[in-house]
């Protein structure tokens, strides 16, 4: 009887942990800027920080972390990402850093408009003659502080 009870409790614990993990991944994928569960519009997140420029990843070289899939231009970049995903992922779920700081809104980005600051990747809206990176640079300290607080409220 004891073995049956122990086995049942173990299975229930494993099941609830798996369900919780799936729920967290789903919530994160819903909060982040993804298209068909793919982050950064298919750009390789490692290339921004290592090569200093964004580059498209390959559909065959993928890794998924907490519900968000990323494409990589090489297996070397993929391996680096898998070792430390939070280091390479864009700030604010991949939404426009300026908009997150200015109004707390989730605004689409142009992955080729980015900034690396303190080893972190920030992405920006840059369409229709509106490059928000320029506005961000004018008041970066204030906007970053507000963006951090706004993202914390969105992604609890």
Could you characterize the architecture of this molecule?
- With 156 residues, this protein is of the alpha+beta class.
- The protein folds into two domains: 32-89, no CATH class; 90-156, no CATH class.
- It has seven helices and eight strands.
- The chain has helices at 2-31, 45-50, 75-83, 85-88, 97-102, 132-138, 140-154; strands spanning 34-35, 38-39, 58-65, 68-72, 110-117, 120-124, 126-127, 130-131.
- It has a two-stranded antiparallel ribbon with strand order 1-2. A two-stranded antiparallel ribbon has the order 3-4.
- Strand 3 (58-65) and strand 4 (68-72) form a beta hairpin.
- It is globular.
- The termini are far apart.
> Radius of gyration, Cα only, in angstroms?
18 Å
Nearest-integer average pLDDT = 86
Structural class: alpha+beta
Proportion of residues in extended strands? 15-25%
Shape: globular
**What is the terminal-to-terminal distance?**
41 Å
> In the residues, how many domains can be counted?
2
Find the count of extended strands (DSSP E, 2+ residues): 8
What order do the helices and strands follow? Answer: HEEHEEHHHEEEEHH
* Main beta sheet: 2 strands, antiparallel
Count of helices?
Answer: 7
The helix content, as a percent range, equals 40-55%
Q: Strands across the major sheet, in which order?
A: 1-2
The low-confidence parts are: 4-22
SSE blueprint and pairings:
Blueprint lengths: L1 H30 L2 E2 L2 E2 L5 H6 L7 E8 L2 E5 L2 H9 L1 H4 L8 H6 L7 E8 L2 E5 L1 E2 L2 E2 H7 L1 H15 L2
Antiparallel strand pairs: 1-2, 3-4, 5-6, 7-8
């Amino acid at each position: 009887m004891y073995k049956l009870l122990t086995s049942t409790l173990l299975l229930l614990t494993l099941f609830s942990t798996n369900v919780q993990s799936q729920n967290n991944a789903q919530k994160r994928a819903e909060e982040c800027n993804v298209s068909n569960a793919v982050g950064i519009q298919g750009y390789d997140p490692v290339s921004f920080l290592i090569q200093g420029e964004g580059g498209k990843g390959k559909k065959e070289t993928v890794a998924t972390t907490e519900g968000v899939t990323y494409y990589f231009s090489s297996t070397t970049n993929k391996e680096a990402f898998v070792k430390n995903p939070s280091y390479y992922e864009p700030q604010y779920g991949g939404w426009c850093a300026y908009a997150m700081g200015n109004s707390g809104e989730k605004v689409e980005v142009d992955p080729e408009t980015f900034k690396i600051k303190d080893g972190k990747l920030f992405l920006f809206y840059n369409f229709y003659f509106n490059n928000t990176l320029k506005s961000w640079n004018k008041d970066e300290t204030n906007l970053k502080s507000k963006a951090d607080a706004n993202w914390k409220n969105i992604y609890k």
